[in-house]
Design brief:
429 residues; alpha+beta; D-Maltodextrin-Binding Protein, domain 2; 2 domains; 4-stranded mixed sheet; globular; cell membrane; lipoprotein; maltose binding; sugar transport
């Protein structure tokens, strides 16, 4: 888990560094190749001989059946290459795209979209409403930047409620129930519930559920000048976090080693329940824990915990000479049939609405919980300014967790720092 969170943070930080190297003017969409200026009867340009896809490492097995079906349906050969998704696809596209040796389609985490658009590496896509209706609203938001759609989602992940069935009969439906259970259960080195709420990746769910927000969402466009991390809701959420640290959480889960400490306690059977992500499932099972998984319990205000969500998507390279057919390909790769097949082969959870209640996912307790929780989740902001949020919020939350600072004061200081860093590192165009 610690590794997973650090990946998200490092990606965001890298995006901030790169933003300083990006163009100062608005990115313009690349011109469509002259080859595609004529259209066939169905409105599509002539078919290319070949399309090239970059897939994530160890995921080609899920791509192969979809490619075969696409080739049979459209008569277009598709080649794929496995390239590490988190950073290498982006970095390699910067070189291979302009050289004319890059792919037509890439897959990247959604929080890279803003930087990729700014650098002119991916292009806006246009798809029918029937295609959009396939996916959950939150997953499509993740693929949107400045109100424009730049990809289609293939998989989601978000923190959920995980419990030891030996210590907890069933998942509580409210945080009030969980609080009472934890008060009764916690004694000595036994804990009813633990969460890494000094880490903003996890704390966001509580803060946003109480009414806070990172950047104001104006119909699909995030406004980095409107920060809601010290509004009344954010303060209430942070006060609620401090309550758990003051009364029920051990000091050992604060700071850099908090994740490994929490994992160790849970895997030793000393913790009844935790907030963690699907990346933790296998390690828990390997430790011999019979885990149950559910969406996060609702907050005292009746709202859902609005966890951060990560989305992996398919995107059309700005350098593709066949963008219409590349778009057709990613529509095909993410349709219900191929999304279901991908889950069977990789356990990556598709944000396809029709599959949430499909027996394949519904009977997989972990996948079902992630799918349901993702409907309440908020995509991590995909604009470069997000890089300035992680550090100040981590500082604020650790001060709150250690009970050294009142939540309002800590959040005010964090937002002040965030705004200063945004003004310095991301000057308005």
């Amino acid at each position: 888990m610690k590794k997973a969170v650090s990946i998200f943070s490092s990606l965001a930080l890298m995006a901030g560094v790169l933003a300083g190297c990006g163009p100062d003017k608005e990115t313009t969409e690349p011109k469509t190749s002259e080859k595609n200026t004529t259209t066939t009867e169905n409105g599509m340009p002539p078919k290319p001989e070949k399309l090239v896809v970059w897939e994530d490492v160890k995921r080609g097995v899920a791509l192969e059946p979809a490619i075969k079906a696409f080739e049979q349906k459209y008569g277009i050969k598709v080649e794929y290459k496995e390239v590490e998704m988190a950073t290498k696809q982006r970095d390699q596209l910067r070189l291979d795209g302009p050289a004319g040796t890059g792919p037509d389609v890439i897959t990247v985490p959604h929080d890279q979209i803003g930087q990729l658009v700014t650098e002119g590496l991916i292009r806006e896509i246009n798809v029918d409403q029937s295609v959009l209706d396939t996916f959950t609203e939150s997953s499509l938001k993740a693929e949107t930047y400045n109100g424009k759609l730049y990809g289609l989602p293939k998989a989601v992940e978000t923190p959920v409620f995980i419990y030891n069935k030996k210590l907890m009969d069933k998942a509580p439906t409210t945080m009030d129930e969980l609080y009472q259970f934890s008060k009764d259960f916690t004694k000595g080195d036994k804990y009813g519930f633990l969460a890494l709420w000094d880490n903003f990746y996890f704390a966001h769910g509580i803060i946003a559920g109480m009414g806070g927000y990172v950047f104001k969402d104006n119909n699909g466009t995030l406004d980095p000048k409107d920060i809601g991390l010290n509004n009344d809701g954010a303060v209430k959420g942070t006060e609620y976090i401090q309550k758990w640290y003051k009364e029920l959480f051990p000091k050992g889960i604060i700071g850099e080693n908090g994740g490994s400490t929490m994992d160790g306690l849970f895997n030793e059977g000393k913790v009844a329940s935790v907030m963690n992500g699907p990346w933790a499932f296998q390690g828990m099972r390997d430790a011999g824990i019979d885990i149950g998984v559910a969406p996060m319990p609702t907050l005292p205000n009746g709202e859902h915990v609005k966890t951060f969500m990560g989305v992996k998507g398919w995107h059309v390279s700005a350098f593709s000479k066949n963008p219409e057919w590349a778009t057709k390909l990613i529509e095909f790769l993410t349709n219900e049939e191929n999304a279901k097949k991908r889950f069977e082969l990789t356990k990556e959870i598709p944000p396809v609405k029709s599959l949430i209640n499909d027996p394949l996912i519904a009977n997989d307790e972990g996948a079902k919980a992630v799918a349901v929780q993702s409907q309440y989740a908020v995509p991590m902001p995909n604009i470069p300014e997000m890089a300035e949020v992680w550090g100040p919020m981590a500082t604020a939350l650790q001060l709150v967790a250690n009970q050294k600072t009142e939540p309002k004061k800590a959040l005010d200081e964090a937002v002040k720092t965030i705004k200063t860093n945004i003004e310095t590192n991301h000057p308005s165009k």
